[in-house]
Write a structure and sequence with these properties.
The protein is mainly alpha-helical. It has two domains: about 70 residues; about 250 residues, no CATH class. The protein has 14 helices and six strands. The protein starts with a helix and ends with a helix.
Length: about 375
C-alpha cells in the first residue's frame, strides 16, 4: 500500500515516537545505572515495593480529587492536596530505580525457578539470563492502530509520542480515517523496547505481568514465532494470525509467572489484576464478544456503515452501564482482538493455547513448543498429535 503510506506519513510525522532516539538515551543510562548504582538486597524490599505502589494509587486519587475541585464538582482544599501530591510524587521518583531493580530480580528468579534462562538453552545448556529482564517505569508511547473498514485486521501499527492530548489524538484519527480506513490511538501499558517501557501509573500486579509480558516478546524474537511477529510489526510481512498467537502466548505466560511471583512475595496482591471488576448482573465480557460477532456478520455482508452505526450505538450502551470506551471501531477490535487470552476475545487461539498449556509438562515446555510455531495450523497439528 505505497500510496496509502505516502498519505499516512505526513499525518503521523509530527507525532512519531523515535525508538532509536529513545534507545540512544536509555541504554547509556541503564549501563551507568548497573555500573554505578550500589543497591544491595535488603530485608525490607517487599515493603519498599508495596510502599511505592501505594503512592501510585494515592497519586491517582489525589489527581482525581484536585481535578474535581478545580472543575467545581466537589468542595475541598486543593492547595493542601497539591502539597500532598507533590510530596508523594517526589517519594515515588526516589523509589523508582530501586523498585525496578527489585522486581527485575524477582522476575528473573521466577523464570529460573521454571528453568527458563534464554532462547537457546535448548541447544546450549547455559544458565545465562538473556535477554536480561530490564524495564523502566515510565509512560510508554502511544500506538496508532489502523484497520481496513471492511474487515477487522491490523494493517499498520505506528508508535506515537506519549502524553498526547485528547485533541491531538482525535485530530490524528480524523485525518487517518479520511484515508478510508478505521484508526485508533491506544495508550499502551507497556512496550517491548530495550529497556522495556512499563507505565508508572498502574498497580503492582499489572506492572509485574506487563514487565514479564514484554520480556517474553523480546525472548520470542529469537524464535520462529517471535521473528515472524517482528516482521509483522515492521510491515515487512503482515500476519495477523501469528500476531494473535504471539500476544496470547505472552499474556498467558506473564500471568502465570506473575502468579508465581506474587504468591512468593506479595500474596495480598495476587488477585490485584481483577480488582477493578465489579460484581453485577451485566456481563461486560460476554457483551463485548457478542458485539464483535455481530460486527463480523455485518462486515461479511459488506454492510460497513451498518456495522459502524451498530458499534457506536453499543459504545453508548456500554457507557450507560459504566464502561466507557472512547472509540469503538474496527481498529479497536483489531488491536484488542489480538489478545486471544482475554475473556472478551472470540478467537479460538486463546482456547487452543490453553489446551496446549494443559498438555505441556511445564511452563518452559509450553513456551518453547508455542515459540517454534509459524502458523495457527502448527498449533492445531500439535494439539491433534497430543490427543
Amino acid at each position: 500500500m505505497p500510496d496509502f503510506d505516502n498519505c499516512l506519513s505526513p499525518i503521523v510525522k509530527p507525532y512519531r515516537f523515535s525508538i532509536a532516539k529513545w534507545e540512544s538515551v536509555a541504554i547509556p543510562h541503564e549501563i551507568n545505572r548497573w555500573i554505578f548504582d550500589s543497591y544491595e538486597k535488603s530485608d525490607d524490599e517487599v515493603h519498599m515495593v508495596t510502599e511505592y505502589f501505594s503512592s501510585v494509587e494515592r497519586i491517582k486519587t489525589l489527581k482525581s480529587e484536585i481535578q474535581a475541585i478545580n472543575a467545581g464538582n466537589r468542595q475541598g482544599d486543593s492547595a493542601s492536596l497539591e502539597a500532598e501530591l507533590n510530596s508523594l510524587q517526589e517519594q515515588r521518583m526516589a523509589l523508582e530505580g530501586t523498585v525496578e531493580k527489585i522486581i527485575e530480580r524477582q522476575i528473573r528468579e521466577s523464570l529460573a525457578q521454571q528453568g527458563i534462562f534464554n532462547p537457546i538453552d535448548k541447544y546450549i545448556r547455559l544458565k545465562v539470563d538473556f535477554p536480561p529482564v530490564n524495564f523502566e517505569l515510565e509512560k510508554p508511547p502511544c500506538s496508532l492502530v489502523v484497520s481496513p473498514r471492511d474487515r477487522i485486521e491490523t494493517v499498520r501499527e505506528i508508535l506515537l509520542l506519549p502524553n498526547l492530548s485528547l485533541k491531538e489524538i482525535e485530530g490524528i484519527e480524523a485525518k487517518v480515517d479520511k484515508l478510508g480506513v478505521s484508526s485508533l490511538v491506544v495508550e499502551l501499558g507497556g512496550c517491548a523496547t530495550y529497556p522495556t517501557f512499563v507505565t508508572n501509573e498502574s498497580s503492582l500486579r499489572f506492572t509485574i505481568d506487563t514487565a514479564t509480558e514484554e520480556w517474553v516478546h523480546q525472548y520470542l524474537v529469537f524464535k520462529p514465532l517471535g521473528f515472524l511477529y517482528l516482521l509483522d510489526l515492521t510491515g515487512v510481512s503482515r500476519n495477523y494470525e501469528v500476531a494473535t498467537i504471539n500476544e496470547a502466548l505472552a499474556g498467558m505466560f506473564s500471568k502465570e509467572i506473575g502468579s508465581i511471583l506474587c504468591e512468593k512475595y506479595y500474596p495480598e496482591y495476587e488477585n490485584d489484576v481483577n480488582q477493578n471488576q465489579t460484581e453485577s448482573e451485566f456481563d461486560y465480557n460476554r457483551e463485548m464478544r457478542e458485539i464483535r460477532k455481530t460486527v463480523d456478520k455485518y462486515l461479511a455482508r459488506g454492510e460497513i456503515e451498518q456495522a459502524e452505526e451498530f458499534m457506536e450505538w453499543k459504545r453508548q450502551y456500554l457507557a450507560s452501564k459504566g464502561y466507557y470506551i472512547r472509540k469503538l471501531n474496527q481498529a479497536y477490535f483489531a488491536f484488542y482482538g489480538a489478545y486471544a487470552d482475554r475473556p472478551t476475545s472470540i478467537s479460538p487461539i486463546g482456547r487452543e493455547l490453553n489446551e496446549l498449556r494443559s498438555q505441556s509438562a511445564s511452563l518452559k515446555d509450553f513456551l518453547n513448543t508455542a515459540a517454534a510455531m509459524t502458523s495457527r495450523q502448527n498449533l492445531i497439528d500439535v494439539l491433534n498429535k497430543n490427543q
